[in-house]
Amino acid sequence: MTTTAAAKAVRTRVADLTALRISVWQKGYLEDRSADVAALARLRRGAGRDAAQMPDLWGLVDPQPLHFSGDGQRALSEREAVRGESALYTALTLWALHQQSRGTPMHRRHTPEKPGGLGAAVRRLMTPDKIDEPVRKRLVRAGTAPDIVALGQRLREIVALLRREDIPLDYALLAGQLYAWQWPGGGDGVRLEWGRSFSSRPSVNLSADDMATPPAGTGPDLKDAS
């Protein structure tokens, strides 16, 4: 396997595990299951913070499937494992912040009809015919972060804006990008992906459900608003 192919394979493993973790918590949270509501409350305390400072979350994030896939995949190198764990932690904690008090799924997989990449989500913060420069610069600033902790902090600011407008994001896609971003030269590729996503147009109009804000007082809006 080439180096590039190996990196893509690990990136996919990080994305798949992120999707698996969120799918369980998101379903439970939207059904108001106390264990999942509590898990999200713990996770969002880590949003924008160094994982090393959040030992309470180490068992909750649980990156072990990255190391022991059980399906014949090779073991990760130390550098792959560290970067994979950082990407998983950052994506999960940001999603937990995004999902707080929202009554619809804030993690939604990307499709050509409904782009779910970070750039596309940021673009939806703007009116279709106008670029909001301060918002666009937040995306640019995130892409130039010096390390994964700073990147998480800058993404936290963007996630807060997306949450306010009920705009979902593909966190599995983001986790894979966060993994790739940590490798030498990886940031260039990820910034290119975000730029293409920002310029993308959905092939169909988004439905009202995609744009709607749930009525106040419905769903889990108030159960963990603190």
Ends distance: 48 Å
The CATH superfamily name is CRISPR-associated protein Cse2
CATH class: Mainly Alpha
Helical proportion, percent range: 55-70%
How would you sum up the major sheet? none
**Low-confidence spans: pLDDT under 50, at least 5 residues?**
204-222
What is the number of independent domains?
1
From the 3D structure, determine the CATH topology. Peroxidase, domain 1
In N-to-C order, the SSE pattern is HHHHHHHHHHH
Basic shape:
globular
- Give the count of helical stretches: 11
Query: What fraction of residues sit in β-strands?
Result: under 5%
Mean pLDDT: 87
Organism: Streptomyces griseoviridis
InterPro entries: CRISPR-assoc_prot_Cse2 (IPR013382), Cse2_sf (IPR038287)
Region (Disordered): 201-226
Protein name: Type I-E CRISPR-associated protein Cse2/CasB
Structure description:
The protein has 226 residues and is mostly helical. The chain has one domain (1-199): Peroxidase, domain 1 (Orthogonal Bundle). It is built from eleven helices and no strands. The chain has helices spanning 3-30, 34-44, 58-61, 64-67, 78-99, 118-123, 133-143, 148-164, 171-181, 186-199, 208-211. Helix 1 packs parallel to helix 5 (78-99) and helix 2 (34-44) crosses helix 5. The longest helix is centred in the N-terminal third of the chain and has 28 residues, at 3-30. It is globular and about 50 Å long. InterPro entries: CRISPR-assoc_prot_Cse2 (IPR013382), Cse2_sf (IPR038287).
What is the structure about, briefly put?
By secondary structure, the chain is an all-alpha fold.
